[in-house]
Amino acid sequence: MRALRILLIIAVILGGLFVAADRLAVHFAEGEVADRLKTQEGLTTTPNVDIKGFPFLTQVAGGELDDVEVGMKDYDADTGTSGGTIRIDDLNAAMKGVAFSGDYSSATASTAAGSATIAYDQLLKAAKSEETQLPLGVTAKVVGLSDGGNGKIKVDIKVSALEQPVSVLSTVSVVDGDTVRVHADSIPSFGNITLADSDVRSIADFDQKIEGLPGGIKLDKVEAGADGVEIAVKGSDVKLAG
């Protein structure tokens, strides 16, 4: 019995040491990947990297991590115009099947899926902020975007001949994996001003291109939310580092 008790104590101690070593190793790896991702993407703050699964060391021995979650508080994506950027908030992605090199200089996920938010004030940059000349001597411009309910965006258009902005409910969608499109569901009345649908749509409808997301992930789906448009992202062969 005494020998068995000693063996049990040794097993518990060794198990504790293994767990401690495993957690130290995973903490080191998370820091390495986070630092390299920060450098690779030119981020101003270090992203959060959370390597899931236990034990970590057995995953390392196999050269692939089952599940890695990456979070960025904010990320400046390209808009396809010279020097133009748009801020992406709370970009989070779950990476599956992450193969990596021994020194963590490169890490590539077989698949990735996640979410992010684009605030309405950021999306408004894509709208026609300058006044547009319409027929009948009328000028108009978009002055606000907000949640219209039921997954729609409310677009407020200020027309020079009217005291109050006119609201248009619009559908938001993803086009070609890199563009958020806002399209008015219908054209409202502008009082005694008669404008062609095409004239109003030249103001109300617009696209916002979003390029250069981390690791080559793409836009998947989008809908209006309380604080901005909520987007789903996805990708394959996504590079975390290298």
Description:
With 242 residues, the protein is an alpha+beta fold. It has four helices and twelve strands; from the N terminus they run αβαβββαβββββαβββ. The chain has helices spanning 2-41, 56-62, 120-123, 197-204, and strands spanning 48-51, 64-78, 85-100, 107-119, 132-133, 139-149, 152-159, 166-175, 179-184, 206-209, 218-224, 228-241. A six-stranded antiparallel beta sheet has the order 1-2-3-4-12-11. A six-stranded antiparallel beta sheet has the order 5-6-7-8-9-10. The chain starts with a helix and ends with a strand. The mean pLDDT is 83.
Keywords:
single chain, about 240 residues, alpha+beta, 6-stranded antiparallel β-sheet, 4 helices, 12 strands, about 45% strand, elongated
Average pLDDT: 83
Helix count equals 4
Could you say which structural class the secondary elements and strand pairing correspond to?
alpha+beta
Strand content: over 45%
- Termini separation: 55 Å
DSSP strand count: 12
Q: SSE string, helix = H, strand = E?
A: HEHEEEHEEEEEHEEE
Low-confidence segments, given as residue ranges, are: none
**Major sheet:** 6 strands, antiparallel
**Helical coverage, percent range:** 10-25%
Rounded to the nearest angstrom, the radius of gyration is 25 Å
Coarse shape: elongated
**Sequence of strands across the biggest β-sheet:** 1-2-3-4-12-11
Summarize the structure.
It is elongated and about 75 Å long. It is built from four helices and twelve strands; from the N terminus they run αβαβββαβββββαβββ. It has a six-stranded antiparallel beta sheet.
